[in-house]
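Why does residue order matter? Because the sequence determines the fold. Keep that principle in mind as you read this record.
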Amino acid sequence: MGSCSSTSHSTFSENLYVGKFSFTNEINSSNFNIKIKAFPKNVIIQIGKPLFGNLLKIEFNSSGVFSFDPKIDDEYLVLLKKFDAKEYMYFFDACFKNLDKNKRSIILKNFDFELKCDHQNSDSLSVNLIYGKDMFIKGVLRRG
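Structure:
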């Protein structure tokens, strides 16, 4: 199992962002830390507690392969699979690397699921995830 401290520093071209997010649904609310490494062909997201326990590592690549360490509940898996890995790769590529300077935000939307990235400045961006009318995840990421 990987952790933030055991993930080796890469010499490859990557964009590293760290931040704090808040999770709210009709029953709970909590805050958690997140680290995102966006490489040219894959993305690694590490989510700290309390949302998924100690640490959740999500990795996906442009070939459409998702992996989760440790495995997660079907409830969250269904939510994360609202888009395929290629759509997520497009979103992260546009959000972290290639956002058109005239267009300050990127939105990925599928029925009741919306993922939005807004550039605040060259080193920070806000990310919002909305699922239906009951679940919201929002936060700010800063270049690490």
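Confidence is low (pLDDT under 50) at residues 1-12.
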